[in-house]
Amino acid sequence: MFVSxxxxxxVLRGLLLAxxxxxxxxxxxxxxxxxxxxxxxxxDFIMTIALGSLIANAAQAADxxxxxxPVAGMAGLFLLQHxxxxxxxxxxxxxxxxxxxxxxxxxxxxxxxxxLKTTRVxxxxxxxxLREANVLDLSEVRAVVLETTGDISVLHGNKLEETLxxxxxxx
Length: 171
Fold this sequence. Notes:
Helix content is 56%, strand content 11%. By secondary structure, it is an alpha+beta fold.
């Protein structure tokens, strides 16, 4: 106990442990790089969720031993992410195992219904993304891609560089 009042001790402990856990997470991000909290891959997205859960667990710890486990877990997450990134860069096979492929949902003004069905993206969601991208004419849409993060990218205009579709799966 930091202080004699149990209520005040709980508040003080929560504040202190949360600040320490968050500071530790910031230090790990500085060491591992900003990519740590990106949502470029499904792995990165899950990393961000797990990190938040571990910070919450650390903030609610009743003693230092209970606090150390989530803090060690944070370090383990960053280490695993670092190793996975190195492995992904060194091997296309590992990259394929760890990473989903983006999928084309629409190409040259035509909706690919089989892709919508396979990816479970409702046509209404696709149309909403087209509106968000200020598409005024479907014939101007060069491609719509469901990214590995779950985001939908709308590429429209007069011309499309094919390099923008490198690695994108067509169903």
